[in-house]
Amino acid sequence: MKNASSTLSLRPATPDDLSLLKQWDEQPHVLESDPDDDWQWETELQRSPVWREQLIAELEGRPIGFVQIIDPRLEDTRYWGDVPDGRRAIDIWIGEASDLGRGYGTQMMRLALDRCFAIPTVDSVWVDPLETNTRAHRFYERIGFEFVEKKRFDDQDCSIYQIKRKTYSNIP
Length: 172
What we know:
The chain is of the alpha+beta class. It is built from six helices and seven strands; from the N terminus they run E-H-H-H-E-E-E-H-E-H-E-E-H. One of its GO terms (biological process) is response to antibiotic.
């Protein structure tokens, strides 16, 4: 695991996390990055499809954030469209504003990318921040993601970024 603190870990989200996730969903910084999504937590925390991992990031046992990793080729809603094999897509956020700007997001993303690239057939990982979320763009670029294209999902204009296995393996 690259530069990740041994005190930060990812664990599967469970129905016991429902109230926490709903609370985080209402935080202004989370709404700013994802204003229109309804994650349907009550239903989705009960499901464990083979194409998805929903994870809680914990710092020394304290929940601080959420990570979702999907195989966009197999995902139910076909959000990403027709996608070749070997891709993953990540959603990530810090729950409380007091935990922003402390390096936790970078550690969470590295743990998520390590998890994605542990699968030998995965060759790239995508993220889709809102076009207006320039803070997220800078975050992804610092980690090594490269801008691919602008794309409209539902009613939201997004910027698609990807990181390839070769790029990630060369990041110190």
